[in-house]
Design goal:
The complex is a heterodimer of chains A (229) and B (198).
Chain A (H helix, E strand, L loop, with lengths): L1 H7 L2 H6 L4 H13 L1 H16 L9 H55 L5 E4 L34 E5 L5 E5 L23 E4 L30
Antiparallel strand pairs in A: 1-4, 2-3
Helix pairs in contact in A: 3-4
Chain B lengths: L9 H12 L3 H23 L2 H18 L9 H20 L8 H7 L14 H13 L2 H11 L5 H8 L3 H18 L1 H11 L1
Helix pairs in contact in B: 1-2, 2-3, 2-4, 3-4, 4-8, 6-9, 7-9, 8-9
Classes of the chains: A mainly alpha (229), B mainly alpha (198).
Chain lengths: 229, 198
């Protein structure tokens, strides 16, 4: 009986002929001496023979159907993965643009205001080369200070005003006459107007760059050529 | 015994796989054509439904296409296909177990492929045929797969072990219990034979 239990696990493979030679011989030897095992082996053999082993075959139509279904699924999957890669690249590029743009925007908005640049304003009118008589220049009693503390000040000669409708208008001043007096500028006698150089500094410095009062003597103007008439 | 039914040789599988990896798309078509009958047959023997078997074959080959670039040529492609097919069939059966339909005999005949090509199934004895199908379906899962792979797919014990992920000894045990269970279930049909032996 002990051998019957050991052999019972081999009987399935035995009826299919799948055991090794020594195992086949062992089962056959035992079945020759054991009626129960011999009957069992024969019953299993008949049972296996009773179950048909044929399977339904694929028709040509079904074969094509499976083939095209697989191809379609594979193609759809590859296109989906390609689209995913493209979308990822687009998102990545957009993120880079946003980061770089934000960095420049912050720099433009806050970086310059936090540390104003040193501004040097030079105003040299063309007609400044003309000789200016000392009598045309009014000399203020006290020299005024010119400085440009606000680097965002409008350009010289341009003013803007906001109308009621919200439109910003520009008013350009006429170019100052070279012979006119420059208010607040200390002028030297018989010196050409112009060459005003303002060296920007903090308001508390209260420095004024005045035109050098010591000026070489100019030759006298010929008589009768003042108006050109 | 196993592989004597025209099954693809492993060397041919390796050649087709290497061609596919080199960019030859037709190699996969050839690979699919060579293994389609096996996969469909295994799926049908588990599912007993022609449409579900076709769907299972389709899923198996889609997975094969995805896995083929990483597939180890040293392995057994047939065993891998059987394993994937069995796992898919298990999933499908578990999902549809609650909504399983009872088929009429005519539907059963039609799903088996009708009268064409299946002379063994056309025994003229529907009672016996239904009894066999019920007996196979009633087997525990591991025993049923061992029996199906051996009886319908003609795999060797080693291939069955590789497919099922167990030892050869376990396959022998599953196979013996499956045949013993079938013998008990189909005792009425084999009783006459046993008496004759006695």
């Amino acid at each position: 009986m002990k051998e019957c239990r050991k052999i019972s696990d081999l009987l399935g493979a035995y009826v299919y002929g799948d055991l090794a030679l020594d195992e086949m011989r062992r089962v056959r030897t035992h079945a020759d001496t054991c009626d129960a095992c011999r009957i069992e082996v024969e019953a299993l053999r008949r049972t296996v023979a009773l179950v048909p082993s044929d399977l339904p075959k694929l028709t040509d139509e079904e074969r094509l159907r499976v083939t095209w279904a697989v191809k379609g699924a594979v193609r759809a999957k590859s296109e989906a993965s390609r689209l995913r890669v493209f979308a990822f690249a687009a998102i990545k590029g957009f993120a880079i643009v946003m980061v770089v743009g934000s960095a420049f925007g912050f720099g433009a908005l806050y970086g310059v205001r936090a540390k104003p640049a040193k501004v040097i304003v030079k105003y040299v009118p063309e007609r400044s080369q003309k000789h200016v008589a000392a009598s045309d220049v009014s000399i203020p009693s006290e020299p005024k200070t010119l400085y440009a503390a606000d680097p965002f000040r409008r350009p010289y000669g341009v003013e803007t005003s906001r109308s009621g409708s919200g439109v910003v208008r520009r008013h350009e001043e006429e170019e100052p006459d070279a012979n006119a007096s420059v208010p607040g500028v200390q002028m030297a006698e018989s010196s050409p107007v112009g060459n005003i150089i303002e060296n920007q500094s903090a308001p508390e410095a209260q420095e004024t760059t005045a035109i050098d009062p010591v000026w070489p003597a100019l030759p006298e103007e010929p008589q009768g050529e003042g108006t050109g008439e | 015994m196993p592989k004597d039914d025209g099954t693809v040789l492993t060397g041919e599988d390796e050649l087709l796989i290497s061609r596919f990896r080199a960019g030859d798309a037709e190699a996969f078509d050839r690979l699919m054509a060579l293994h389609m009958d096996q996969v469909f047959g295994l799926a049908w023997s588990v599912m007993h439904n022609r449409e579900e078997a076709l769907d299972a074959a389709q899923e198996v080959f889609i997975k094969l296409h995805r896995m083929l670039p990483k597939f180890d040529c040293g392995g057994n492609l047939s065993a891998w296909l059987y394993r994937v097919c069995l796992n898919h069939c298990i999933d499908v059966k578990r999902r549809s177990s609650s909504s399983e339909l009872e088929l009429t005999e005519d539907e059963w005949d039609r799903l088996q492929g009708g009268d064409e090509g299946d002379p063994s199934w056309n025994l003229g004895n529907r009672e016996l045929r239904d009894a066999i199908r019920s007996a196979v379906d009633e087997l525990p899962e591991r025993q049923r797969f061992a029996f199906i792979l051996r009886h319908y797919q003609f795999l060797s014990l080693i291939e069955i072990a590789e497919t099922m992920g167990c030892s050869v000894g376990a396959v022998k045990s599953h196979l013996s219990r499956a045949t013993s269970h079938l013998r008990s279930t189909l005792a009425g049909y084999v009783e006459l034979v046993v008496r004759e032996v006695q």
